Amino acid sequence: RVASLPTVLFAGKRVLAEAKAAEHWLLERNNEPVTVVPRDELLDPSLDIEKLLFLSLSRGAEFGPLRERLIAAAPVGIGFQSEVSEARILNFCHPLATKRHAVIRLAQWLGIPLDRVAAVGDGDNDAEMLGTVGLGVAMGNAGPAAREAATVLVADNDHDGLAHAIREHVLR
What whole-number distance in Å separates Cα of residue 80 and Cα of residue 90? Predict the structure, then answer.
């Protein structure tokens, strides 16, 4: 059943797929254009794959159980991070390729204590990051895990939630 889901691979700056799918708009809306390449290129062992996504506009409810089955089936010693980001994207990546690790590294590099860092998110894949920083802001359209991890909840993306978060919680 996994094979029937549109799948994309992130390799460097490229987002690759075997065939065009309606679900690609989930990535392309974020300026991540999907390039269709021959199957042989996707299976090339020299391809440095950073992330694998399964996409679905209609079968997102299957992603939680599918994620658990794939984690259970993974060979011992194969480490990866997996999240359902949004309800329509099942994400697999390197265990350290998370938003939480990225914000920790950035704060260290900038010399800013984590309790002085603000982060904004709306996906359940943002939950770890939101719970790590001093001010975790969940957008009104955030999933349950992101809402739970956040310090504050603001309006959704279509109702100036980010502007409110900055005005009321960062600039004060």
Answer: 13
